[in-house]
Amino acid sequence: MSFLKGKMVLITAGPTYERIDDVRFIGNFSSGKMGFALAESALRMGAVVTLVTGPTCLYCSPAIDRIDIESAEDMYQVVTANSEKQDVIIMSAAVADYTPKIKHNGKIKKKEDFMTIELVKTKDILKELGSKKKDNQILVGFALESEKLLEYAKGKLERKNCNIIIANQANSSDSGFGKDINTITIIDDKDNVKEVATAPKSEIADSILQYVSEYSELP
């Protein structure tokens, strides 16, 4: 029997859009494909799945409790409101680190040659989840890095008090935003490191969830 059968699993996916005005936003190139693949895989393994997703055109099974959000603040509110009852939380969304300090009503008219937008930090959802993590919860984060992949991923694992970090390389031909394939390294808080070869994101999702299922038995 799968470890995930009957477990409550929350997964985040996609980008967040941080509004500048009513027609413009700051965002990123996340497609949501990895998070959606994780949600479908968890569902197949018998989990009760909540998927909190930023703007994306992707479809998911109607058996998944899908909650669509727009901004980092939206995601913070939904995830923290639903976190306590979860057995596993997988934060695969690409949440914006900064958001405009002022969100203008209507459309800003083009006037000057330059425009300055003041940004403020968004709330660190993963860090807050880690600070409140229950002993029986498994918290999984993602680290997309352009350099020093393992070093930065291990640092994130410790800072955010995660059980597991999924590290993948930005700006690579076989990993990163928008692709149908991924190449990852799984790192846990027991000093285990597992490299997972390039594969379709559906297979990568299966590998991640299998690792989550076996995590409590790992040395």
Report what the structure shows.
The protein has 219 residues and is of the alpha/beta class. The chain has a single domain (8-103, 117-214), classed as Rossmann fold, CATH 3.40.50. It has 5 helices and 12 strands. Strand 2 and strand 3 (25-26) form a beta hairpin. The longest helix has 14 residues, at 201-214. The chain is globular and about 60 Å long. The mean pLDDT is 93.
Shape: globular
End-to-end separation: 21 Å
> Major sheet: order of its strands?
5-4-1-6-9-10-11-12
| Biggest sheet architecture | 8 strands, mixed
What is the CATH topology? Rossmann fold
Helix percent band = 25-40%
Task: Kindly provide the name of the CATH class.
Answer: Alpha Beta
Number of contiguous helices: 5
Structurally, the number of domains stands at: 1
Q: What's the CATH H-level homologous superfamily?
A: CoaB-like
CATH architectural type: 3-Layer(aba) Sandwich
Describe, in short, the structure shown.
The protein has 5 helices and 12 strands. It has helices spanning 33-44, 72-82, 125-131, 149-159, 201-214; strands at residues 8-13, 18-19, 25-26, 48-53, 65-68, 88-91, 98-100, 119-121, 138-145, 164-169, 181-188, 193-200.
